[in-house]
Amino acid sequence: MAEPWEDDELDGPVRKFMYVNRRAPYGTIYALESLEVVLIAAAFEQDVSLVFMDDGVYQIKKEQNTDAIGVKNFSPTYRALEGYDVEKLYVEKESLESRGLTTDDLIVPVQVVEKDQLAELMEEQEVILSF
Amino acid sequence: MPIEVNGKSLEVDEEGYLANLNEWEPEVATIMAKEDGTELTENHWEVINFLREYYEEYQIAPAVRVLTKAIGKKLGKDKGNSKYLYELFPYGPAKQACKYAGLPKPTGCV
Amino acid sequence: MPMLHTVNKSPFERRTLDTALRHAVKGSAILLIEDGVYAAFDGTVVADKVKAALSDHKIYVLGPDVAARGMSEHHVIDGIDVVDYGGFVDLVTEYDKVQSWL
């Protein structure tokens, strides 16, 4: 039997997972649930990409401060994704612009994509999960 | 069963993780380790302190793979490997060290 | 009879704000809370509609919900007042009815 430390290289199939985030944080539970599932997939070394579109772009807005609403601020966790090798973060250009935001407003480096590019990226995936 | 630390009774969950992160003090780790039959060394504290800093920055407990890589970056390759961390924390490095550090159980953890 | 209308849905996702404005008589107040606060920020595609509504309504936005979403007073459209929880309570007592649009 393998020693426990020899057991942590996972040999299962690697699939292309895309998580599509379309909801604002805090008003509903979708954003936090998505983040937790992303972390689990990443821990299993899957090929993960994240999309932020529609109100989902608000999830990665800088300077969130939830002290006064008594809810945990989970936005710093998006910055941990790099350490999980989740580096494919896409933001839909139209969604950002219609909310008067730019990439300077975001807490993580992202790739801004047009809706056509995004459609192509979706075509390349094996699994798409929408939150 | 709550744990007794410096005359205070601290709430823990059914797996022994501290219910309230803010109630942590170094003594918590010492007492939890003693219950597991472990005497904490400098090497243990390095990892525990690292985890607390990680949580402070990212608001999560890291998965074991992420912890191993990050420890390697910070403390050197001889410490950033699974064998070293499993020897320190035989119940699973992320799981056991997170518990001593007062953090929640890591998501998708070992 | 002027009343206080609260709106807690994002204007980009739901029509709740439109519905509230359609049914609010002149002089009624609108309080934006939770995801409803996104209607209060300048530079968005809904900002013009909200600015237009200011001529018929006092509009307020709940500060703690603004801060939680990474926004601050300087993002808020001129003419909209930022209130805290105490201000929320004051509004509820100032108007004799509250319509909470969900």
Describe this structure in words.
The complex is a heterotrimer of chains A (131), B (110) and C (102). Chain A has 131 residues and is of the alpha/beta class. Chain A has 3 helices and 5 strands, in the order E-H-E-E-H-E-H-E. Chain A has a single domain (16-130), classed as 3-Layer(aba) Sandwich (Hypothetical Protein Ychn, Chain: A). Chain A has helices at 30-43, 93-98, 115-123, and strands spanning 16-21, 47-52, 88-92, 111-113, 127-130. Chain B has 110 residues and is mostly helical. Helix content of chain B is 49%, strand content 5%. Chain B has 5 helices and 2 strands. The longest helix of chain B has 17 residues, at 42-58. In chain C, 30% of the residues lie in helices and 20% in strands. Chain C has a 5-stranded parallel sheet. Chains in contact: A-B, A-C. Chain A binds chain C through residues 23-28, 54-55, 58, 61-69, 71, 73, 75, 98-100, 105, and chain C through 8-10, 12-13, 34-35, 38, 41-45, 47, 63-65, 67-72, 84-85.
Compact summary:
The complex is a heterotrimer of chains A (131), B (110) and C (102). In chain B, 49% of the residues lie in helices and 5% in strands. Chain B is mainly alpha-helical and 110 residues long.
* Largest interface (C-beta under 8 Å): A-C, 25 and 25 residues
The Cα radius of gyration of chain B reads 13 Å
Mean pLDDT level of chain C = 97
Q: How many independent structural domains of chain C?
A: 1
Low-confidence stretches of chain B: none
Rounded to the nearest angstrom, the distance between the terminal CA atoms of chain B is 23 Å
**Beta-strand share of residues of chain B:** 5-15%
Class per helix and strand makeup of chain C: alpha/beta
Q: What CATH architecture of chain C do you see? A: 3-Layer(aba) Sandwich
Q: Could you state the order of secondary-structure elements of chain B as H and E?
A: EEHHHHH
- Total strand segments of chain C: 5
Average pLDDT of chain B: 91
Instruction: Determine and state the CATH class of chain C.
Output: Alpha Beta
What would CATH call the homologous superfamily of chain B?
DsrC protein, C-terminal domain
Helix residue percentage of chain C: 25-40%
What does the overall shape of chain B look like?
globular
Q: Largest sheet of chain C, order of strands side by side?
A: 4-3-2-1-5
Report strand order across the widest sheet of chain B: 1-2
Please report the first level of CATH classification, the CATH class of chain B.
Answer: Mainly Alpha
The number of E-state strands of chain B comes to 2
